[in-house]
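Troubleshooting entry. Yesterday's outputs looked truncated, so today I'm pasting the complete records for two proteins to confirm everything comes through intact. If either block looks cut off, that's the bug. Protein one:
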Amino acid sequence: MEEKKQSEIEEEENFVYDQDAGNDAKAILEKLHKKLKECREEKQKYLDGWQRIQADFANFKRRNEQQIAEWSKTLGEGVIKDILPVLDSLDAAIASGPDDRGLLVIKNQLQTVLKKHGLEEIRSVKEKFNPQYHEVVECEEVDNENSGEIVSGEIQKGYTLNGKVIRAAKVKVKK
């Protein structure tokens, strides 16, 4: 391939002095136009390839950033799911000994950190039952027919992470 390029270069340098052309300006001009057209086509081919590579790289970079963000969310979700039982234990400890301000401070700090990472508590008590957010573990019969299904108590808190339910609230429902 190197030899072919070298011969093309020599041809380019010598075509002006071609004996067959006989210093015919028209023939020389035609050869120059032909060579110019070839150079433009080759330039366009390289430019198109370069632009395609640039676009492919930009797409790769965007997909890579999205994948990293998704992995980060997934990893964070796993860690937060592992922390929820600790939060439940803190709630139980505070409920059994409400005078322990140290536990309350720790719980508030933990909730602040988790909220910063997108964790939200699902509101349940006195809310209309929603199967997307609530899991019924007990039903209470009520004579009032206008009440619909209202959550009357919460057995275990539910949480969303960045808008996605990671644990439904376990609730008592009035029917």
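Protein two, checking that the full record survives here as well:
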Amino acid sequence: MSSEEFADTNILLYAFDLEAGKKREVALAILERFWTERVGCTSIQVLQEFYVNATKKLGMSSVDAAALILRFSKWKVHRPEANDVLLAIRLHREKSVSFWDAMILRSAMSCDCSILWSEDLSDGQVWSGLTVRNPFAE
């Protein structure tokens, strides 16, 4: 695995949620490090989820959300293919994770990331050399 790191949707959303308090600070610090150290990765799925939730839950304008997606697209962005879906289905079946979490894991693995930042999976769990980190875990 490389030094690259993957941001799940919740990390991106907290960074722009003005009511997220400490979670916003932590998420912003992760994104800042992604930019300064050039280690950021994400996926088409995350960008889609970000758009929907930023405009609906955060009340962000479509224009502002699109501008942020354009910025995030400067990172390595995984564009899943049919084989990725099949491998995610295997993860879903064999490891009892939701299909959508399996797609996130598959995308992070495809980007050769060493860390997946997410609050949706178990902190410290290792998946084929990919370590899940929940930056909000206490």
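Both blocks look complete. Sanity check on protein two: The domain at 5-133 is CATH 3.40.50.1010 (Rossmann fold).
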